[in-house]
Amino acid sequence: MAFFAVLLAALAVQQVYGASTPRRRATCAGGQQVTNAECCAWFPVLEDIVPNLFGGECGDDAHGALRLTFHDAIGFSRTGGGGGGADGSIIVFNDTELTYLANAGLDDTIDAEAPFIAKHNVTPGDFIQFAGAVSLTLCPGAPRTGFFMGRAPPEAPAPGPDGLVPEPFDNVTNILNRMFDAGAFSPEEVVALLASHSVAGADTIDPTIPGTPFDSSPSIMDTQIFIEVQLKGTLFPGPDPGNGEAMSAVAGEMRLESDGLIARDERTSCFWQEMAGNQSRMQEQFAAAFLKLGMIGHSESSLIDCSDVIPDATPLPDNAGPHLPPTLDQADIQQACATAAFPTFPVLPGPAETVPAIPQS
Ligand code: HEM
Ligand SMILES: *[C@@H]1O[C@H](CO)[C@@H](O)[C@H](O)[C@H]1NC(C)=O
Ligand SMILES: *[C@@H]1O[C@H](CO)[C@@H](O)[C@H](O)[C@H]1NC(C)=O
Ligand SMILES: *[C@@H]1O[C@H](CO)[C@@H](O)[C@H](O)[C@H]1NC(C)=O
């Protein structure tokens, strides 16, 4: 009886699996199997950008590529006011869009990516989202996200100045409204997208300290951003705090005012807290929201699913558990969510740390 139950269960699993697995229909020149033959074009791009754009690591260029996916895509308004969304306009119309304050610092990323776009003859809108998805696979702990191709070249720059891309000195209402107008993002999805700030830092907020990270581990995508931003702020990492900067809890680390406010706002604080220490939740919710970001101005039915080109994710190292920075403790957490207590984490041993700057490329 038990044997038959197991056998039936196995058959059922196999059937479900068989039905939901897309049929592989094309073999690319390099032998890779893909669902759609058009996706084969992305393997040479992948093999080029991993070593030659990213140096095989989750460093400055990978971080910039991830930021660029956001700044290109968010230039869109569902209620009118223009923009083509994830269309590559930030590269093609760089002479307009890079004059917007919110895009400061992206000139380096655009200069780095442009030669690869020309060499591989792909559209800039597709390339930006592809490079972002690939950059994540170099960041241990990040999820493997999907990738769709088929974005036409942009027709016009996203309108400015400084209207469509959220700024770190914007209030939570403005940011949530903007994100809803651009991509119908819920407050929960906005929090999920901010997992990106786990592999990030600032070059332009305080230009005297370029590459100042937002959490203590900017080359892995863990949930420390959600823990460290919830700590009581006590210091600025540089001598001269910039516009949109709030006090952080760890030397060498910068906190954006917007991240600090979103962690403490009643519309978002419980979602923020639920990310702290929950790596799988962070991965799932970020991957879904990131895919939605790349769809702004498009729909899944107008694009081709080339997710099978994206390499496997890199797992977090074993020693990367969620923690409180050395010398701080649970009492330094500023509880904001009204319905549940912030989870408790072990304190790293040792003296107070100073987080090193992210090496600039
Ligand atoms: C929603 C509100 C957001 C605000 C206000 C914001 C603001 C900022 C600011 C001010 C910086 C520092 C720029 C600099 O001085 O170099 C930054 C960096 C970054 N942001 Fe955001 N951001 C937001 C959302 C996002 C989203 C949705 C993503 C990606 C999906 C993202 C990815 C990044 C990355 C990867 C960096 C680091 C870039 C680097 O280290 O070179 N951000 N963000
Ligand atoms: C930046 O914009 C200028 C003027 O539109 C254009 O000639 C140039 O090719 C663009 N740069 C890149 C990297 O696309
Ligand atoms: C948010 O900022 C806008 C202006 O940028 C302002 O009109 C609004 O009153 C602010 N809202 C809150 C809740 O502070
Ligand atoms: C992590 O989040 C998932 C939802 O994504 C939830 O089901 C699970 O209970 C959470 N784990 C912990 C330890 O809170």
TrEMBL record:
Cofactor binding, note field: Binds 1 heme b (iron(II)-protoporphyrin IX) group per subunit. Binds 2 calcium ions per subunit.
Localisation per UniProt entry: Secreted
Keyword match Iron: yes
GO MF annotation, one: heme binding
Residues holding heme b: 197
Residues where Ca(2+) 2 binds: 198, 215, 222
Highest taxon listed in the record's lineage: Eukaryota
Signal peptide: 1-18
GO biological process: cellular response to oxidative stress; hydrogen peroxide catabolic process; response to reactive oxygen species
Protein name: Peroxidase
UniProt source species: Mycena chlorophos (Agaric fungus)
